[in-house]
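Students often ask why we bother encoding 3D structure as a string. The short answer is that it lets us treat folding as translation between two languages. Here is a chain of 232 residues written in the first language.
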Amino acid sequence: MDSKSKRLAGDDDGSIPQNGGVLVIGMGRFGSRLALTVERLGREVLAVEKNPDVINRWSGRIPLVEADAADPDALEQLGAREYPVAVVGVGTELESSVLVTSNLVDLGTCQVWAKATSPEHARILRRIGANHVILPETDAADRVAHLVGGRLLDYIEFEDGFTIVKMRPPKETIGFTLGELGIRKKYGVQVIGVKTPGKEFEYGTDETRIARGDLLIVSGNTALLERFASRP
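And here it is in the second language, the structure alphabet:
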């Protein structure tokens, strides 16, 4: 069985490897910011870019090689097989994005993350084997849409409609304990914990009392969380 077949057959358990470097392909705004952050976090990173002008801009600032990752031979020569995680930051050139992603999948890269510019682009990337597809503008717009209302302070949506939020407590909850409120039974969401200013985070129990100024960490179905967060 070749490396692609093994990968698609499920030999990989889907977890992100904690050892080894990260290969970042494309040094546009998305790729360059990601590469710099990965390096700052102490992870080995190698950036790949084919545009000489971009190479000159980043030369000396981050480990970087000039190569066309749409060419599988080029990926082989720069040792792409040695990197368990690869991020394809090429987004505007759809053909190049698809070719690069396909090449990495063929190489057996454990985790391939790819940037997409549209839902159609994202669907193609998933079909050819990308583990994770990022739609930066769409993801950012969705997140901001949930934050501009005022009560939600942070918002993380997972698969299957499961979401975790940081939010201000509705007025009706202030002064009561979680046990008295019965939030899970009443609204279908779970208060994971409460952060009172100046105090340590407290995991939610029936005895946890909510005060004005507290922040709640709440999880549950996205629609139910939105309903709970919309309470006065």
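Translate back mentally: Residues 94-107 form the longest helix (14 residues). Keep this in mind for the problem set.
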